[in-house]
Specification:
Strands 3, 4, 5, 10, 11, 12, 13, 14, 16 and 17 form a ten-stranded antiparallel beta sheet that branches. The radius of gyration is 19 Å and the shape is globular. The mean pLDDT is 91. The protein has one domain: Anthranilate synthase (4-Layer Sandwich), CATH 3.60.120.10. α2 crosses α7 (335-350). With 354 residues, the protein is an alpha+beta fold. Helix content is 27%, strand content 35%.
Length: 354
Amino acid sequence: MTNLFVQVEIHQQSQLPFVLYCKPNSDRIVGLFQQNDHLYFIESFEETGFVFAPFDGNTMSYIPHEYSDIIVEKVSYSDFYFDKIAAFSIDDEAKNAFVDLVQKGVNVIKMNQFQKVVLSRKEKVALYDFDLETTFKKLVHSYPTAFNYCFFHPKIGLWIGATPEQFLRINDKNIQTVALAGTQKAAFIDNVIWGKKEIEEQQLVTDFIVSSLNKKVDVIVVSKPYTITAGSLCHIKTDISAILKSNTHLKDIITSLHPTSAVCGLPKEEAKTFILTNEQYDREYYSGFLGELNIDVASTNTAQSDLFVNLRCMKIVDDFAEVFVGCGVTKDSIPEAEYQETVNKSLTMKKCIQ
């Protein structure tokens, strides 16, 4: 066991907060180990540390850099192997409930109450001999292009994820974000053909981000959409970069973008109201955001923030993993197909805990 995971074990036994994470295409795992069990909240957005924000965005917790010990280790895959095929079964009752929810969303969209809504569900998976170190290494090994993390706070719980989506990267006045939507299971990226529903959904996400940023930036550049892979899944991605106006602050950008239409819908408030009224469960930190706030921990660069949308994640509760998955719903959505999309997404987590 390395120094990093020795410290993880000590913090777990002492019920002290910590976070491990590995950035996309990075060869380093960073660990922040808080020195007390206090639950800190973001107030001014000038704080430095690792932020962990929920979907509703009302209270944003963080692990402060100033009250944490830091350990950085190189990623190592030596003597490490596991079966990549995850077993799964269909819960007909849960499937029918989600199909009905999606159909309700489609019906409301056709009534012109909103253009898009992102609907989700939570699946409970039994754990046998769960080991945090092994699970985290599986994530890093399986999803090197994702933001892999493990966050623990005794007042929040243990969360683990491998998200493919950047929320926001800021370095001084330069910002970068992405529009990511559409999901397809494909063995080879060259074989992917996108349908009207996925193309429209992705364009809605792009338009939302651009319109949210327009009055807050001097220059904005939007790439053409292209296909990327995340594990065994493919998505449509658009890169967006901009230069902040001199009077624009980080808080202005985050509050205008979160939750993005990639996890909520359009218009945002109408879609969010539908979600909170109809999903019948608490998303908690799923589809929130997380990452380094006002600091690159490994280099202590205080001009940088590197934040990600909390997708492809699970919460460990006793001997179960609560796996969170969702899908974007538009007027062209087919409820059965949307349910299958959530099944495909759930395998991201399942294959690392089974």
